[in-house]
Write a structure and sequence with these properties.
D-Amino Acid Oxidase, Chain A, domain 2; globular; 10 helices; 17 strands; eight-stranded mixed β-sheet; single chain; five-stranded mixed β-sheet; alpha/beta
Length: 436
């Protein structure tokens, strides 16, 4: 028996206002200064930087540019790291932990300045983010983290006790939370389209539907084989992240693609949106398999996302999980229709940190771990400066050793359903232990 349809469309909500469009075929320049693999946020930001510096550069994408995660994500300008401040401090020491957090602040400021300077029209609003605590013990940890950010990094960040929670979100599910105001929301499809526009105007050549199939080092640099032919490049930058394939086998053993799914509600009344999201903030929560959600840029819908354990096809179960999560937070939305449900790949690695690294002469800019709206343009730009030998402009805390390979992994993430189930078990244990 066929599965019941849960949402009207299985394409991204973002594509309604910013559809991914094919690019006209471009002539293949046989000799380049830099060949870039991938034309998402990172590849375009790097290509823009290199082209404006006078380098001959082309980006090759296996799909239409932006068709991957760059036009499928939640549009939250978080720039956060998967580990919390306490875990970073435990693993790397307080100085390194603060340096990583501080770079997130700089990367967000870089993005916001870029949007303003380049006239990027992508519905950006610096509304802040609220993170909900599942128990009072977790709230205490969030409150201490917010205090640290405010005191040491001068980020406007503060705790929200449970009694004040309704002023930020229309649910009693959480037991307080924390706010930081250096995070906002944008329209990711429009952002990519505008970034592509600016990059093309700066003489970056972008080849759509032109997968790279091999990268081979030779005397002059690299022989890059593509579906349209071969090119000789002095340098190569790989920015494939969650869509890494066999053209970059070294990276593929280190980047695990994980599906992230988002649902969109039908348009809600102004009163409902005012009640559920009174400050129009971005939202997240403190569970391992926690949800992230936000109002649509026009303030009329709720977009609700989380991890998807499926690996093939487009099954109904992950959409139902998100719908159930939405209703758990907002019971009044039980009868609300879903207009869209879609997924895209984020890339996780064993360190759970973004990364620039070099291996056999190839430079990689990757590992955004679900926070690519901020990290991808930043890391892509730093990588471009690294290729040009601009030491000061290339400086970043994330340029260090490659992430470790994942044992027994060669590109098929067969283990991800079990990993996600494990995270779910951790959440159930944490819920059981939580002081609510």
């Amino acid at each position: 028996m066929p599965e019941t349809k849960v949402a009207d469309k299985n394409t991204p909500y973002w594509w309604e206002a910013a559809p991914v469009k094919p690019l006209p075929e471009q002539p293949l320049v046989r000799t380049l200064d830099v060949a870039i693999v991938g034309a998402g946020y990172a590849g375009l930001a790097a290509g823009l930087t290199l082209a404006r510096a006078g380098r001959s550069v082309a980006a090759f994408d296996a799909m239409s540019p932006g068709e991957g995660a760059s036009s499928r994500n939640g549009g939250i300008t978080s720039g956060t790291i998967r580990h919390d401040q306490a875990t970073l401090t435990r693993r790397f020491g307080e100085d390194k932990a603060l340096a990583i957090e501080a770079e997130g602040k700089v990367a967000r400021e870089f993005l916001y300045d870029f949007l303003a300077t380049e006239g990027i029209a992508c519905d950006f609003r610096p509304v802040g983010i609220f993170k909900g605590a599942i128990g009072f013990r977790q709230y205490d940890a969030m409150a201490r983290g917010a205090e640290t950010l405010a005191r040491k990094l001068k980020i406007e960040s503060y705790a929200v006790p449970h009694r004040e929670q309704r002023g930020f979100i229309g649910t009693d599910f959480y037991r307080g939370g924390a706010v930081r105001m250096d995070i906002g929301g944008l329209h990711p499809g429009k952002f990519h389209a505008e970034l592509l526009r600016v990059a093309l105007a700066s003489d970056l050549t972008v080849h759509a539907h032109t997968p790279v199939t091999a990268i081979e080092r030779n005397v002059g640099g690299f022989r890059v084989t593509t579906a349209a032919g071969t090119v000789q490049a002095r340098q190569v930058l790989v920015c494939t992240n969650g869509y890494t394939d066999g053209a970059a086998p070294y990276l593929r053993r280190r980047m695990v693609p994980v599906r992230s799914r988002i649902i969109a509600t039908e348009e809600l009344s102004a009163d409902t949106m005012s009640r559920l999201m009174p400050r129009q903030m971005m939202m997240s929560e403190g569970r391992q398999l926690g949800f992230y959600y936000r109002p649509s840029p026009d303030g009329r819908r709720i977009l609700f996302g989380g991890r998807d354990s499926s690996r093939v096809g487009d099954p109904v179960a992950p959409t139902l999980r998100l719908r159930n999560g939405l209703v758990e937070l907002f019971p009044e939305l039980e009868k609300t229709r879903l207009t869209h449900s879609w997924f895209g790949n984020v890339a996780m690695n064993r360190d759970m940190l973004p990364r620039i690294f070099e291996k056999d002469g190839v430079v990689y800019a990757t590992g955004f771990c679900g926070s690519g709206v901020v990290w991808a343009p930043w890391i892509g730009t730093r990588a471009a400066h690294k290729l040009m030998g601009h030491t000061e402009q290339a400086d970043t805390a994330f340029d260090f050793r490659p992430p470790a390979a994942v044992p027994l992994y060669r590109g098929n993430p067969w283990f991800m359903p079990a990993v996600i189930k494990g995270y779910g078990l951790q959440d159930r244990i944490a819920w059981w232990r939580a002081k609510r």
